[in-house]
């Protein structure tokens, strides 16, 4: 059984994230979508609300589970879950360079964890490249569009799933 782990802040979840989740759900028997908490970031939505948006948006995918992730290395978390793969999205060549480094460091961390007795496979990183229209939109871009111009809703609605847009409309 292949189990994937897709982690991010998802603040907010975009259609590109959803595409990656749907693609991951087709690739893996089980896919965990881990909502990360970075204490240096300021979030628009609390962790529980970001998880709820993923659950609502991915309700049609029975093998997807949204969970919270914080306070430890992602590869340790993946090993504890029994994840065989870490799923990552690549939008730009810069993303690829950064992700390649992270993948190699994850291997080092995984080997050390295994040597110290942590069970579970060291997950293989899998990269997906979304279609061009989805690759050009980030959560930061979406947050920057909310509430500025009176027509922001028309633009933002194209970039995020409906449950996310409803929450952004209430917040904006």
Assigned CATH superfamily: HUPs
Q: What is the CATH fold-level name?
A: Rossmann fold
What Rg do the Cα atoms give?
A: 16 Å
Strand order within the widest sheet? 3-2-1-4-5
Explain this structure.
This protein has 172 residues and is α/β, with parallel strands linked by helices. The protein has one domain (3-136): Rossmann fold (3-Layer(aba) Sandwich). Helix content is 47%, strand content 17%. It has eight helices and five strands, in the order E-H-E-H-E-H-E-H-E-H-H-H-H. The protein has helices spanning 15-27, 47-57, 74-81, 93-115, 132-135, 139-145, 152-156, 162-171; strands at 3-8, 30-36, 64-69, 85-89, 124-128. A five-stranded parallel β-sheet has the order 3-2-1-4-5, with helices on both faces. Strand 2, helix 2 (47-57) and strand 3 form a beta-alpha-beta unit. Helix 3 crosses helix 4 (93-115). The longest helix is centred in the middle third of the chain and has 23 residues, at 93-115. It is elongated.
List the helices and strands and how they pair.
Elements: E1 3-8, H1 15-27, E2 30-36, H2 47-57, E3 64-69, H3 74-81, E4 85-89, H4 93-115, E5 124-128, H5 132-135, H6 139-145, H7 152-156, H8 162-171
Parallel strand pairs: 1-2, 1-4, 2-3, 4-5
Helix pairs in contact: 3-4
């Amino acid at each position: 059984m292949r189990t994937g782990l897709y982690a991010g802040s998802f603040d907010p979840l975009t259609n590109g994230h959803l595409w990656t989740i749907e693609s991951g759900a087709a690739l893996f028997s089980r896919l965990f979508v881990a909502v990360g908490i970075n204490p240096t970031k300021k979030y628009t939505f609390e962790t529980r609300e970001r998880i709820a948006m993923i659950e609502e948006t991915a309700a049609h995918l029975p093998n997807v589970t949204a969970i919270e992730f914080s306070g430890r290395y992602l590869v340790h978390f993946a090993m504890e879950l029994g994840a065989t793969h870490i799923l990552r999205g690549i939008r730009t060549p810069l993303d690829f360079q950064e992700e390649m480094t992270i993948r190699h460091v994850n291997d080092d961390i995984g080997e050390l964890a295994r040597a110290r007795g942590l069970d579970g496979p060291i997950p293989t990183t899998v990269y997906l490249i979304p279609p061009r229209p989805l690759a050009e939109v980030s959560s930061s871009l979406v947050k920057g569009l909310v509430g500025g111009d009176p027509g922001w809703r028309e633009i933002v609605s194209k970039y995020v799933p409906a449950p996310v847009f409803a929450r952004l409309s209430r917040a904006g």
